[in-house]
Amino acid sequence: MLVSFFSSGITHPPPSISSNMSPKNVVFKKICNDKSVAVYMGRRDFVDHVDSVDPVDGVILIDHQALQGRKVFVSLCCTFRYGRDDMNVMGVAFRRELHLSSRQVYPPLQDRESSIHSRTQAKLLRKLGDNAYPFFFEFPDNLPCSVALQPGPNDSGKQCAVEFEIKAFSVENLDTKPRKRSTVTLTIRKVQYAPDSEEPAPSAEISREFVMSDKPLHVKASLDKEMYYHGQAVKVNVSITNDSSKHIKSIVVSVDQISTVVLYSNDSYVKCVALEEPGDTLAPGESLQRVFTLLPLLANNRERRGIALDGKLKHEDTNLASSSIIKEGVLKEVMGIMVSYRVLVKLVIGGMMGSSEVDLEVPFRLMHSKPDPGRCVEMEEEMEFQEFKRSYLKGMIDDDEDDGNVSAGDDIAPKEK
């Protein structure tokens, strides 16, 4: 079994693990510059099951000497950014805070043992000792999933995105602005997986009549299923019966991604992420039956500005954004960026007065499959605390440097008790 090791959002090649070695739980850790506060979390992806969302839990480790009597708080924040943080128009910033919830961790407001919410937290508290304190947040059901619009090759600054972060900081009181050197921030993701229920395979058809033509043009398109997983090919069965007197000059089949920024403008951006243009023509009275295979992948669209992506953690790779699923009763206007997919079959029709088009749309969903439940079960084996090293970045700069955050070394993790 191979385990991916992460630290501060950086992916490192896993060492080989032989079958007789115990697998380890990977724990994300990060410490602020003045060493007063460190964050430990067992995961950074939290699943939106539509009817419920995984709670966010972790452990804060404090250093009494570095704290110097200050209190420690932790917050969960969801932010929608649609422009650079330093930009504003007529006093309106291009950043909107969708949710902010804060908790006082130290001095604790309740008994430490009674506030434990997961086995991972319990194991962390045993390992880290008496200066460790748990925290817990529940996601509101009206928050969007993590998604970002891909910037262009020459774009600078942070991208348009819905982002979540856990921030721990030490201050005299909650109204005091935290110092950067006393703050540690960890980006997390809210994600969705494909539902268990399967919808019928979608299809669509259209008949188009033309002037001076006794019979219509009939087009039908169908998919083999409604839900596709990232990396799967989309098979489109196209049937064309051209009983009209028109000549079909070309046939184009594409997969389009529709990203609707519903929060502030309701603008929609349609991007073709896979295309088949075989060059087929169809004369009057002819028919065509053909299966087109399209593969929507980020790898084929990396330089295209405005493609919606699943939110990523620092320099980890990601994929095309998953289709958005909204809980019934939740207003779409607060969901940030809504993503959907369709297959578009376009016929270019020749004519004496110029060309015209016949379009046929078939919607479908593109998502991740649910992980194997056996891999999601918390393991009882030893925990693996990963130390972040800048050499892993291979010349890239860690975005958190501006916030004064560094990751923790083993010096702040007490030995196993």
Describe the structure.
The chain is mainly beta. The chain has 2 domains: 5-193 and 371-412, Immunoglobulin-like (Sandwich); 203-367, Immunoglobulin-like (Sandwich), CATH 2.60.40.640. It has 3 helices and 26 strands. The protein has helices spanning 64-67, 119-128, 373-376; strands spanning 5-7, 10-12, 25-32, 37-41, 45-47, 56-62, 71-81, 88-89, 92-93, 95-106, 132-137, 147-149, 161-171, 183-191, 203-208, 217-223, 227-229, 234-242, 247-261, 267-276, 287-294, 308-310, 337-350, 356-367, 383-385, 405-406. It is elongated, with a radius of gyration of 26 Å. The two termini are 27 Å apart.
> Mean pLDDT, nearest integer?
78
Count of helices? 3
User: How are helices and strands ordered from N to C?
Assistant: EEEEEEHEEEEHEEEEEEEEEEEEEEHEE
What's the main sheet like? 7 strands, mixed
Q: What descriptive keywords fit this protein?
A:
417 residues; mainly beta; Immunoglobulin-like; 2 domains; seven-stranded mixed sheet; disordered N terminus; Arrestin-like_N; Arrestin-like_C; S-arrestin; Arrestin; G protein-coupled receptor binding
